[in-house]
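Would you kindly consider the sequence and fold I have copied below?
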Amino acid sequence: MPDTRSHRGAAPQDESLFDEHALPALRDAVLELSWLLSRGYSDTSALALVGNRHSLTARQRTAVMRCACTDAQRDHRRARALPLDAIRDRDVDIDGFNALIVGESALSGGLVLVGRDRAHRDLASVHGTWRRVSETSQVIVAIGEALARGAPRTIRWHLDRPVGNSGRLRALLAEIAEEHGWHWAIDLDDAPDRVLAASSSIVATGDGWILDRVEGWIDLPAAVIAAHPGAWLVDLAP
């Protein structure tokens, strides 16, 4: 059945899976998984071990995995995290779907995770096809306003060409940028993760694989949340 929801909000079970009673076990799981990963265990076997120990559901395991990382990854990523005022007169590359979907989740009442590296992440990732929701334009404007305050030299969005409707999102980004006088380049890439990981620009992403490879990064969903307080933040860093 096609997904006809107009918001990228919380799943029906999230309220109980991530309430205050569940958080201690989830934080312990993040700590234990990170310990195992730091010692070379594979992510699949380590997650199974930790998830079984705490009787976690599949959705809770996904959250734990997105918030965990090795000690070395945590330190590397935190050391390269930059505030928005650091982008002035610099070039910025944006992981488009990553920034947009986390922002959409935040403004629609969905769960937003904060991991050991302090990056904001969602549980509503795109699989195959992107669809516009009620908050999409609002999030794009919030990101644009945050970037405008930072005053970078150039801004380039990177979208996954293989994702369905990526062309429509490109057109929407261009339309909103023109309305506000923002000068954005918007690329459709076959492998944007690799492009971003190799970029010499400041990269806006919460993707751990990319964060491990860039010299500087910013957290645009954090800026969106700061401008629209009230998001459901779940901090799983022990």
Strands lie at 91-95, 111-114, 120-122, 154-160, 184-189, 202-204, 217-218, 232-235.
